[in-house]
Design goal:
alpha/beta, seven-stranded parallel sheet, 30% helix, 712 residues, 21% strand
Length: 712
């Protein structure tokens, strides 16, 4: 007897097919079963779907229905909650359900046939048992104990607002320990914003829980893993052997049938928002998933996102999260680093480092302490230019400049990757005197080496070595950590004390527990103060606070830790709040400005982005869809009141309007009501599909909707 199966497959939102197709099976298969199915001339992975609310595409001819190629036996069906999470994600972020669901599964799972998967499962090694040995668990501080008591007595969600170094990770560890001790089969999901933060967190969790529950109890999930590694971790989580999953934003979709706790560390970080495909926010989906599965959710940060801060206001004022506060650092000295503002208006015009800062760096190194210099721009200089004719190192494929990298003498576009050797002379006029403009981390490293050439490492001058050793400078950015394992080895050198001065981008500003750094210097952070992006001040404050948090994490050195901000705007309110480590004051001022301007979190936004061969075609597509919404959709029954709540702005070029010879434009949509915006976008999808076929839109390549965008 044949059975008709609704199967979810990866069909993009702009395809004519729906996401759920009908297939034939000799046996009934429950929803959530993974199957291989024919799709066109190829075979692909599909998921038997709960068809409630998601109808299969149109009417079908039973004689033309194709049979499934086989089910992946040995893998339990995906849960109803997981299916609901993916359905919500696709609906909210305006993508195809199949596109989201299949992308959420491990790549190797999408590639293996049923026979290959069966062999893979047979080769699975036996789980290593627990040793039973318990490590020493740190004594909780009064603040940590209070916070954990609140978590025990409240369903959440929680916003854990804790100063850098206040011991938020220990709170996470303690909550997981209590959960697993109380529920033998419970699972916890711990999320971090970036891959480079995963190893140190994995080390702490394995040290605490592997002796109790076995090595496979703690697994990681992130895109830096090989496909076999990702599949192994996914299967361990899906089967329940993994009690704790650590991962980046993709881990929010991990199959965890017994999920009872979700932690989103550094919840403010923009890395939790996907910038391609389904542009989802893993932080927001964690909140939804917690509600869906009855799991507690803890968002943690020293500088919470303004959205989360707003949601954690008192319940009587409409707050939805419970705010927990840990203002003090752990250790004998809980003093936060002193923030010094250096007025660069009083320094030599072309000075990279102020003289007082150089003296402070020399003093720290002489005492055997470490210094961190932070600049969020890699390369040697952002532009190479000719003073005679005005030539600049523009990328021929992008509306951006190629960055000068002095070490390998290249001009490299950080958008499309186009790279050329630095010309010997100006390509336009032949002038040999072409010079860099601006600076990046590569230049800072070189300049510091020149300024500190005579400085010796602490304790290196001995009778046997009267000349001592030169101080060691290390640079950590995307250029120095390209090779596998390079980041880990450089971080290990910093932790071991083999580095005196660490130069880097935001990669070194977040989450790392550098015990010997006592001075953090931020070079030239002013650009974000005058950005057209209304979120730029929030990102700058957060980044500087996070960078400051790397200083004085060792209790014995905390009292003398400092943060130096070199700025041309020393009286700016942002720096005044930073000096006091006063995030609440900064947040209150920012939220007041946003409320007055009706910006998020006091309104809902979406961006429609269009890529085309010409800027005219990209904008024509967006403006045609806008005109249709403002005219034709008004005639749709019952839509006039809804459209009164929607504002569609004219199409404009994106900030970097051309990348890899593709022109890009965007249109902003706003509404005071999130529900109204969602209803409009759902109805407008058909308009976008129809509009791309119009003559004036010829040359359109693709379009995508970004709900709750972080960059405008």
């Amino acid at each position: 007897m044949s059975h008709w199966l609704p199967v979810l497959v990866n069909t993009p939102a702009h395809a004519a097919l729906g996401p759920v197709l009908t297939y034939q099976s000799e046996q009934p298969l429950p929803a959530g079963t993974l199957v291989r199915v024919p799709l066109g001339s190829r075979e692909t992975l599909g998921v038997v779907w709960d068809n409630t609310g998601t109808e299969a595409t149109g009417e079908f001819d039973p004689s033309k229905v194709r049979a499934i190629a086989g089910a992946l036996e040995g893998i339990a069906p995906l849960s109803a909650q997981w299916q609901q999470l993916l359905t919500f994600t696709a609906s909210y972020y305006q993508r195809s359900a199949g596109e989201v669901a299949l992308a959420a599964l491990p790549p190797q799972l999408r590639e293996l046939s049923p026979e290959q998967m069966a062999r893979r499962l047979k080769r699975k090694k036996p789980v290593e048992g627990a040793t039973g040995a318990v490590l020493a668990v740190p004594v909780l501080t009064p603040e940590q104990a209070t916070v954990i008591g609140q978590i025990d007595s409240h369903p959440g969600p929680f916003l854990l607002f804790g100063a850098t170094g206040s011991g938020k990770t220990e709170v996470y560890l303690h909550c997981v320990h209590k959960l697993l001790a109380a529920a033998p089969d419970a699972q916890a999901l711990i999320m971090v914003p970036e891959i480079n933060l995963t190893p140190q967190l994995e080390e702490r969790f394995k040290a605490r829980f592997a002796p109790l529950y076995g090595e496979e109890a703690v697994v990681s999930l992130h895109s830096g893993m090989t496909n076999p590694q990702r599949l192994k971790s996914w299967l361990a989580a899906h089967g329940g052997a993994a009690r704790i999953v650590l991962g980046t934003r993709m881990a929010v979709f991990a199959s965890l049938p017994k999920l009872r706790l979700i932690v989103v560390d550094e919840e403010h970080d923009p890395s939790y928002k996907s910038s391609e495909g389904a542009r989802y926010s893993a932080r927001d989906l964690a909140i939804y998933r917690g509600k869906l599965e009855g799991a507690q959710v803890i968002l943690g940060s020293a500088t919470p996102s303004l959205e989360s801060w707003h949601h954690s206001r008192p319940a009587g004022e409409g707050g939805r999260y419970l705010r927990l506060h840990m203002p003090s650092r752990v250790g004998e000295s809980s003093k936060l680093p002193l923030v010094r503002r250096v007025d660069m208006n009083h320094q030599p015009r072309k000075a990279v480092f102020s003289l007082p800062l150089i003296d402070a760096i020399k003093e720290r190194v002489a005492r055997g302490e470490q210094v961190m210099v932070f600049l969020n721009r890699r390369g040697y200089a952002p532009v190479l230019a000719c003073d005679d004719c005005g030539w600049k190192s523009e990328c021929p494929h992008c509306s951006a400049f190629r960055v000068f990298h002095k070490i390998d003498r290249t001009l490299r576009c950080h958008h499309c990757g186009f790279t050329e050797r630095v010309p010997r002379a100006c390509p336009d006029c032949g002038n040999v005197d072409i010079a860099p403009i601006g600076r990046g981390t590569e230049q800072l490293e070189e300049h510091l080496a020149e300024l500190l050439v005579d400085v010796k490492r602490a304790g290196s001058v001995t009778p046997q070595n009267p000349r001592g050793e030169h101080l060691r400078i290390a640079r950590i950015d995307a250029d120095t950590t390209r090779l596998k394992g390079e980041l880990e080895s450089q971080l290990a050198a910093v932790h071991a004390g083999d580095v005196d001065v660490l130069v880097g981008t935001q990669m070194i500003a977040k989450g790392h527990d550098f015990r010997r750094i006592t001075l953090v210097a931020a070079v030239n952070p002013d650009n974000a103060l005058f950005s057209s992006d209304f979120r730029a001040p929030e990102r700058l404050f957060s980044l500087l606070m996070q960078a400051a948090g790397r200083a004085g994490r060792d209790a014995s050195l905390g009292a003398q830790s400092e943060v130096w901000i070199q700025t041309f705007q020393p009286t700016h309110p942002l720096y005044a709040a930073l000096k006091k480590h006063d995030y609440p004051a900064f947040a209150e001022q920012q939220l007041k400005e946003r409320e007055q301007a009706a910006m998020p979190p006091f309104s809902a936004q979406a961006l429609v982005r269009a890529d085309a061969k010409t800027q005219e075609a990209a904008q024509a597509f967006l403006n045609a869809a806008r005109t249709f919404a403002q005219t034709e959709m008004l005639e749709w029954e019952g839509w006039a009141p809804l459209l009164d709540q929607i504002t569609l702005y004219p199409a404009v070029p994106m900030t970097i309007q051309r990348v890899a010879n593709v022109e890009r434009a965007q249109m902003l949509i706003e509404s005071p009501s999130r529900a109204a915006l969602q209803q409009f976008l759902n109805g407008w999808q058909s308009v976008l599909h129809a509009t791309r076929g119009q003559p004036e839109c010829k040359g359109l390549i693709r379009w995508a909707i970004d709900v709750d965008p972080l960059a405008i």
